[in-house]
Amino acid sequence: MMHVHLVFVTKFRHKVFTDAHLRRMEEIMRSVCTDFECTLVEFNGEDNHVHLLVNFPPKVAVTKLVNSLKGVSSRRLRQEFPDLVRHYWRANKLWSGSYFAGTVGGAPLSVIRQYIEQQNRPV
Protein backbone atom coordinates (compact mmCIF):
# COMPACT_ATOMS: atom_id res chain seq x y z
CA MET A 1 0.00 0.00 0.00
CA MET A 2 1.13 3.53 -0.81
CA HIS A 3 -0.05 6.94 0.31
CA VAL A 4 -0.54 10.09 -1.72
CA HIS A 5 -1.36 13.62 -0.59
CA LEU A 6 -3.72 15.25 -3.11
CA VAL A 7 -4.75 18.89 -3.39
CA PHE A 8 -7.53 20.06 -5.74
CA VAL A 9 -8.31 23.74 -6.30
CA THR A 10 -11.51 25.20 -7.68
CA LYS A 11 -11.68 26.57 -11.22
CA PHE A 12 -10.42 30.18 -11.21
CA ARG A 13 -9.75 29.71 -7.43
CA HIS A 14 -13.35 30.82 -6.74
CA LYS A 15 -14.15 30.73 -3.03
CA VAL A 16 -17.34 28.66 -3.17
CA PHE A 17 -17.28 25.88 -0.58
CA THR A 18 -19.23 26.04 2.66
CA ASP A 19 -19.04 23.49 5.47
CA ALA A 20 -22.06 21.71 3.97
CA HIS A 21 -20.30 21.42 0.59
CA LEU A 22 -17.15 20.05 2.24
CA ARG A 23 -19.05 17.49 4.35
CA ARG A 24 -20.86 16.14 1.28
CA MET A 25 -17.66 16.21 -0.77
CA GLU A 26 -15.91 14.06 1.81
CA GLU A 27 -18.72 11.47 1.59
CA ILE A 28 -18.52 11.45 -2.21
CA MET A 29 -14.74 11.13 -2.24
CA ARG A 30 -14.81 8.30 0.33
CA SER A 31 -17.23 6.44 -1.94
CA VAL A 32 -15.02 6.94 -5.00
CA CYS A 33 -11.97 5.74 -3.05
CA THR A 34 -13.86 2.62 -1.97
CA ASP A 35 -14.72 1.90 -5.62
CA PHE A 36 -10.98 2.00 -6.38
CA GLU A 37 -10.15 -0.21 -3.36
CA CYS A 38 -8.48 2.80 -1.75
CA THR A 39 -8.94 4.39 1.66
CA LEU A 40 -9.47 8.10 2.24
CA VAL A 41 -7.36 8.47 5.40
CA GLU A 42 -7.82 12.21 5.87
CA PHE A 43 -9.88 14.94 4.23
CA ASN A 44 -10.08 18.67 4.85
CA GLY A 45 -10.63 21.82 2.88
CA GLU A 46 -11.25 25.51 2.68
CA ASP A 47 -13.48 27.65 0.51
CA ASN A 48 -11.40 27.12 -2.66
CA HIS A 49 -9.43 23.90 -2.26
CA VAL A 50 -9.34 20.48 -0.60
CA HIS A 51 -6.64 18.18 0.76
CA LEU A 52 -6.86 14.39 0.72
CA LEU A 53 -4.58 11.70 2.11
CA VAL A 54 -5.30 8.48 0.24
CA ASN A 55 -3.97 4.99 0.87
CA PHE A 56 -3.97 3.06 -2.41
CA PRO A 57 -2.70 -0.26 -3.80
CA PRO A 58 0.00 -0.30 -6.51
CA LYS A 59 -2.51 -1.48 -9.14
CA VAL A 60 -4.32 1.89 -8.97
CA ALA A 61 -3.05 4.63 -11.28
CA VAL A 62 -3.10 7.92 -9.40
CA THR A 63 -4.19 9.81 -12.54
CA LYS A 64 -7.27 7.60 -12.95
CA LEU A 65 -8.14 7.96 -9.27
CA VAL A 66 -7.75 11.75 -9.48
CA ASN A 67 -9.87 11.98 -12.64
CA SER A 68 -12.63 10.00 -10.98
CA LEU A 69 -12.45 11.93 -7.68
CA LYS A 70 -12.64 15.27 -9.48
CA GLY A 71 -15.21 14.22 -12.07
CA VAL A 72 -17.65 12.48 -9.74
CA SER A 73 -17.41 15.15 -7.01
CA SER A 74 -17.89 17.96 -9.54
CA ARG A 75 -20.91 16.35 -11.13
CA ARG A 76 -22.62 15.36 -7.89
CA LEU A 77 -21.93 18.61 -6.05
CA ARG A 78 -23.25 20.69 -8.95
CA GLN A 79 -26.38 18.51 -9.07
CA GLU A 80 -27.00 18.58 -5.31
CA PHE A 81 -26.03 22.21 -4.71
CA PRO A 82 -27.48 24.43 -7.46
CA ASP A 83 -25.80 27.44 -5.82
CA LEU A 84 -22.44 26.18 -7.17
CA VAL A 85 -23.62 26.36 -10.79
CA ARG A 86 -23.63 30.15 -10.83
CA HIS A 87 -19.83 30.17 -10.39
CA TYR A 88 -19.24 27.82 -13.31
CA TRP A 89 -21.89 28.59 -15.90
CA ARG A 90 -19.30 29.08 -18.65
CA ALA A 91 -16.75 26.39 -17.90
CA ASN A 92 -19.24 23.87 -16.44
CA LYS A 93 -16.42 22.50 -14.28
CA LEU A 94 -15.88 22.77 -10.56
CA TRP A 95 -12.18 21.96 -10.42
CA SER A 96 -9.09 23.43 -12.03
CA GLY A 97 -7.50 21.13 -14.59
CA SER A 98 -4.38 20.81 -12.45
CA TYR A 99 -3.78 19.17 -9.10
CA PHE A 100 -1.01 18.43 -6.62
CA ALA A 101 -0.06 14.83 -5.90
CA GLY A 102 2.80 14.08 -3.55
CA THR A 103 3.81 10.65 -2.39
CA VAL A 104 4.16 10.37 1.32
CA GLY A 105 7.22 8.20 1.62
CA GLY A 106 9.57 10.25 3.77
CA ALA A 107 7.28 11.91 6.29
CA PRO A 108 5.43 9.97 8.97
CA LEU A 109 1.70 9.71 8.23
CA SER A 110 0.91 11.42 11.52
CA VAL A 111 2.72 14.55 10.30
CA ILE A 112 0.80 14.57 7.01
CA ARG A 113 -2.53 13.97 8.80
CA GLN A 114 -1.79 16.85 11.19
CA TYR A 115 -0.91 19.14 8.27
CA ILE A 116 -4.19 18.33 6.50
CA GLU A 117 -6.25 18.67 9.71
CA GLN A 118 -4.90 22.19 10.23
CA GLN A 119 -5.63 23.48 6.71
CA ASN A 120 -8.96 25.11 7.48
CA ARG A 121 -8.00 26.63 10.81
CA PRO A 122 -7.56 30.41 10.94
CA VAL A 123 -4.04 31.65 11.55
From TrEMBL:
<dbReference type="InterPro" id="IPR036515">
    <property type="entry name" value="Transposase_17_sf"/>
</dbReference>
<dbReference type="InterPro" id="IPR002686">
    <property type="entry name" value="Transposase_17"/>
</dbReference>
<protein>
    <submittedName>
        <fullName>IS200/IS605 family transposase</fullName>
    </submittedName>
</protein>
<dbReference type="Pfam" id="PF01797">
    <property type="entry name" value="Y1_Tnp"/>
</dbReference>
<feature type="domain" description="Transposase IS200-like">
    <location>
        <begin position="3"/>
        <end position="119"/>
    </location>
</feature>
